Amino acid sequence: MARHAADKFDQRDHAWMREALRLAGRAEAEGEVPVGAVVVRDGQVIGRGWNRNIGLDDPSAHAEIIAMREAGQKLANHRLVNCSLYVTLEPCPMCAGAMIHARLERIVYGASDPKTGAAGGKFDLLLDPAHNHAPAVEGGCLAGECSESLKTFFRSRRKSTVATQVD
Ligand SMILES: [Zn+2]
Questions:
Q1: Could you tell me if 156 and 131 are in contact, meaning their C-beta atoms sit under 8 angstroms apart?
Q2: How far is the CA of 42 from the centre of ligand 1 (A)?
């Protein structure tokens, strides 16, 4: 029997995504767009990241890039072989490119991103068969919680922008 779309993720997937969500909270606390990511190998987190573009004055400081950098340092290898990456939001084209270079085995994301998502949300970059490395890509893990944290952030930001304009 075909498995339900809702239960293609197991408890461990949910646990890693919860950790990514916790890191998204750190981004939010620092005034960044709340996205978090973890790189996992052999049941252990070897890289953690959250969006830090503003704090680091770095256009490439997305959660996934930071998590992959840390994992590479830990493994002393630019290839993250046998690693999975969990991220709360569908990766953008920049991160998708880095993920292909990293040779990740599996990529799991939470919310879809119809604006810049590169796993089919907007672009089909991550799944393009032209790559010589094809990671497994699965979206929708804790999608409700992941998109809720982003929605709440943008809602409160809109409110504060309005408040500033009124002031
Ligand atoms: Zn990105």
A1: no
A2: 24
Antiparallel, parallel or unpaired: β 106-111 and 84-89: parallel
Virtual CA dihedral for 95, 58, 76, 85, nearest 10 degrees? -30
Give the three-class secondary structure for 92: coil
Q: Which two tokens stand for residue 67?
A: 């998590």
- β-partners of residue 45 are 40
Kindly tell me if the per-residue pLDDT of 116 is higher than 80.
yes
User: What own/partner pairs with CB < 8 Å and gap ≥ 24 does 115-119 have?
Assistant: 116/92, 117/89, 117/90, 117/91, 117/92, 118/90, 118/91, 118/92, 118/93, 119/90, 119/91
Q: What is the pLDDT of residues 10-39, one digit of tens each?
A: 999 999 999 999 999 999 999 999 999 999
Q: Is 138 known to be catalytic?
A: no
55 Cα to the center of ligand 1, angstroms:
16
Q: Residues 64, 70, 90, 138: which is the catalytic one?
A: 64
Task: Report CA(106)–ligand 1 centroid distance (Å).
Answer: 16
